[in-house]
């Protein structure tokens, strides 16, 4: 495949001469670092350059060079954007090597390129934890800007709720710190604005919590139980004690001969006595299905691995593909927030659709994520919108790197059809962490009534629209 075709040649040597990091261009086998594990929909052309910054001054120099040459670019921390916004650009400003992690007096300072799994392990050695998501390879940069939900979220809140201070390189190349006392408008905006393009975050200071052991809970049933479980789950999981964080997943293996199943998974937190209470409550709402539940008590170090996805739902070491990714598969994801439960008819339609017309080499997953708990804390101090939702549903189809266009199309169509079965109950808002380029009014979906204020902040900090991709904020 041809590299992004900006016909004119760029002489990268002046930038190479001043960077601590590297500029990787076509012909250099390290360009494989530009690959991601899954692309959304279409193959991604290799960039004209992957600039690997190692420090804040590197980021400033890179920005200056790209502006001088009027080169379009993306900003990438962990590269896990579902819409490929960080990777589909002629130049990628890559922050993977800005990945330091330190922790002192319960406060963590991390680089945006630090991966959630590495942060969790590093903090665990200090007996601390920060709530993150369930994928160990997501970067702290992207995660802290979109929100960041996960197994500790109903107790402690989002990853972005823990951010105390951000170091940011602005569009004009200047550097600011954003906190409650410094550039408070930018601080408000960044924590929840996701891919909005307000500046490049080069360091994050985060509050942490004492790391405790926890109880992992897992149950697996045939898909025939899915409708009943969805009905029960949506009434109980979003209203459960904040120390109970249980997701429900419908899973269709990539071999249509293999049966689909439904899985309840997550954590029970707190003292032994409190966990015993949570177990009783759970057994009551599950009724006869409770006999298939399995529980594991994890010591703190294992807990730190489980909450970030380094252990799988049954607490075995999770399978993780080797980095760098040599081949790129395809993942189609769409999601919505819901303020109210789904009707029995929608649940029935959703389960039917889940099994319909399965294909060889196509994996499907429907994920039901409980909201409430600490996510619902009234909070005017950040731009994150989705405080009042009850739950989120994510529909995902995954196919391999050698899939045909027809199989990809089929996966995409299934995601659309699955989403359609429940759409009438959705609240119109979408998690900015599940960026979706096929939304008609994506800014409204991500930011709702925060949009106007965010646009004014964009105008103030990036009046020339230097940071732009398909979903950055438009100037007012
Ligand atoms: C497999 C998988 C599992 C996931 N699981 C969860 C989960 O459990 N919980 C959850 O909340 N989310 C989850 N997500 C979503 C994830 O949090 C978002 O996609 C997030 O944006 C990824 O961060 P990143 O740094 O890896 O991404 P990147 O692709 O590097 O960045 C995404 C976008 O954020 C912006 N950005 C990134 N870094 C910076 C920076 N330093 N400065 C300014 N802007 C920046 C850019 O606009 C960029 O396009 C998951 C995603 C995937 C693919």
Automatic annotation (TrEMBL):
Residues 43-211 form the FAD-binding PCMH-type domain. Keywords: FAD, Flavoprotein, Oxidoreductase. InterPro entries: BBE (IPR012951), FAD-bd_PCMH (IPR016166), FAD-bd_PCMH-like_sf (IPR036318), FAD-bd_PCMH_sub1 (IPR016167), FAD-bd_PCMH_sub2 (IPR016169), FAD-linked_Oxidoreductase (IPR050416), Oxid_FAD_bind_N (IPR006094). Pfam families: BBE, FAD_binding_4. Its cofactor is FAD. One of its GO terms (molecular function) is FAD binding. Belongs to the oxygen-dependent FAD-linked oxidoreductase family. This is FAD-binding oxidoreductase. It comes from Pyxidicoccus fallax.
């Amino acid at each position: 495949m041809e590299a992004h075709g900006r016909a004119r040649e760029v002489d990268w040597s002046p930038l190479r001469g001043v960077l601590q990091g590297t500029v990787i261009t076509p012909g250099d086998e390290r360009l494989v670092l530009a690959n991601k594990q899954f692309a959304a929909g279409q193959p991604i052309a290799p960039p004209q350059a992957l600039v690997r910054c190692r420090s804040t001054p590197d980021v400033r120099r890179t920005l200056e060079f790209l502006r001088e040459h009027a080169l379009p670019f993306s900003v990438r921390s962990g590269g896990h954007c579902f819409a490929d916004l960080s990777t589909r650009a002629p130049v990628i400003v890559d922050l993977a090597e800005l990945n330091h992690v330190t922790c002192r007096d319960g406060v963590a300072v991390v680089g945006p390129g630090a991966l959630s799994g590495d942060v969790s392990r590093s903090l665990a050695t200090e007996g601390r934890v920060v709530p993150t998501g369930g994928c160990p390879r997501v970067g702290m940069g992207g995660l802290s800007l979109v929100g960041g939900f996960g197994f500790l979220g109903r107790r402690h809140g989002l990853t972005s709720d823990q951010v105390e201070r951000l170091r940011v390189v602005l569009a004009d190349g200047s550097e600011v710190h954003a906190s409650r006392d410094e550039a408070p408008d930018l601080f408000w905006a960044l924590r929840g604005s996701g891919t909005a393009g307000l500046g490049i975050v080069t360091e994050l200071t985060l509050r942490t919590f004492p790391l405790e052991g926890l109880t992992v809970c897992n149950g697996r049933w045939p898909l025939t139980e899915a409708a009943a479980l969805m009905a029960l789950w949506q009434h109980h999981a979003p209203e459960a004690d904040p120390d109970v964080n249980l997701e429900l997943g419908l899973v269709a293996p990539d071999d249509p001969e293999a049966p689909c199943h439904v899985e309840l998974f997550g954590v029970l937190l707190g003292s032994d006595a409190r966990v015993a209470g949570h177990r009783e409550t759970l057994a009551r709402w599950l009724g006869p299905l409770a006999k298939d539940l399995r529980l594991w008590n994890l010591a703190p170090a294992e807990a730190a691995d489980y909450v970030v996805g380094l252990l799988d739902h049954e607490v075995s070491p999770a399978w993780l593909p080797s980095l760098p990714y040599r081949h790129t598969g395809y993942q189609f994801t769409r999601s919505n927030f819901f303020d109210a439960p789904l009707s029995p008819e929608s649940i029935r339609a959703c389960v039917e659709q889940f099994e319909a017309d399965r294909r060889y080499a196509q994996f499907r997953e429907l994920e039901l994520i409980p909201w409430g708990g600490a996510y619902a804390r009234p909070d005017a101090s950040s731009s994150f919108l989705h405080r009042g939702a009850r739950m989120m549903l994510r529909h995902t189809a995954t196919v391999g790197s050698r899939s045909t266009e027809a199989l990809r199309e089929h996966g995409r169509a299934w995601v659309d059809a699955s989403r359609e079965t429940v759409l009438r109950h959705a609240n119109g808002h979408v998690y900015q962490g599940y960026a979706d380029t096929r939304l008609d009014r994506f800014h409204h979906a991500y930011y709702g009534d925060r949009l106007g204020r965010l646009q004014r902040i964009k105008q103030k900090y990036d009046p020339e629209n230097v940071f732009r991709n398909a979903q950055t904020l438009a100037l007012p």
